[in-house]
């Protein structure tokens, strides 16, 4: 059984009279433990696809099975439950809350987790922050951190609820190339520990570190490539 099974996803945005077909029939399977990149020009539908696969949004038509469960017609409430339990997100702009400390940011998803236990989550948050070299940053606010540190906090936050899959939308897009590689290295390590990951990027440099590359254009999958050599971050 696939972790992700998407069949013929269509997404139409309505802006008043205007309809934008962001996805025009996308089918995609992802196995547990895979490390995938999704590439394509701006406006090709990458974010839309990630939002659907990440249970932030539902398709206009088509089916999406997550761990065999059809989530394509869930209500917003049901969808948010699934998302909170199974999905972790990392964004280009980090999306940390500036009035909260690093630790509070990492613990944020636990508040929305009905199974969340703050005591064990706090322990896990410290472990994650230590793992990502942020032990002495716990009480800092995001504005006191570098870009790379902010993204590491965001990764810790994405992992706090033990998700099945991690989605990263241009995770290195706001970082210089050296820092970007540090982030990529962390994502690679998490993958080696078993995490399934989908990285959206238009940086061709990143795709060689992933096992499979999905190419999107004009709302369709234009092609797919399996990397015969998967690079490691030096
Ligand atoms: P990418 O991530 O590849 O840049 P997007 O999925 O963001 O592509 O966008 C695909 C198309 O859908 C674009 O034409 C974009 O303007 C449009 N679009 C994306 N999100 C929305 C939205 N929330 N409302 C209306 N149009 C949208
Ligand atoms: P990127 O291409 O870097 O992935 P976008 O600029 O396409 O990002 O989109 C940023 C956010 O704005 C996304 O969450 C997307 O859903 C939304 N968005 C994109 N295009 C539109 C649009 N035309 N109208 C409304 N929201 C949009």
Beta-strand fraction estimate: 25-35%
Tally of extended strands? Answer: 10
Q: Helix share of residues?
A: 25-40%
Number of helices: 7
Please summarize the sheet with the most strands: 6 strands, mixed
The average pLDDT score comes to 95
Radius of gyration: 17 Å
The shape, in one word, is: globular
SSE order: EEEHEEHEHHHEHEHEE
Q: Identify the bound ligands.
A: adenosine-5'-diphosphate
Counting helices, strands and paired strands, the structural category is alpha/beta
Protein name: ABC transporter ATP-binding protein
GO molecular function: ATP binding; ATP hydrolysis activity; transmembrane transporter activity
Family: Belongs to the ABC transporter superfamily. Macrolide exporter (TC 3.A.1.122) family.
GO cellular component, one term: membrane protein complex
Topology:
Elements: E1 4-15, E2 18-30, E3 35-39, H1 46-53, E4 61-66, E5 69-70, H2 76-86, E6 87-91, H3 102-111, H4 118-131, H5 147-159, E7 165-169, H6 177-192, E8 196-200, H7 204-207, E9 212-217, E10 220-226
Parallel strand pairs: 3-8, 3-9, 6-7, 7-8
Antiparallel strand pairs: 1-2, 1-4, 4-5, 9-10
Helix pairs in contact: 3-4, 3-5, 5-6
Bound molecules: adenosine-5'-diphosphate (2 copies).
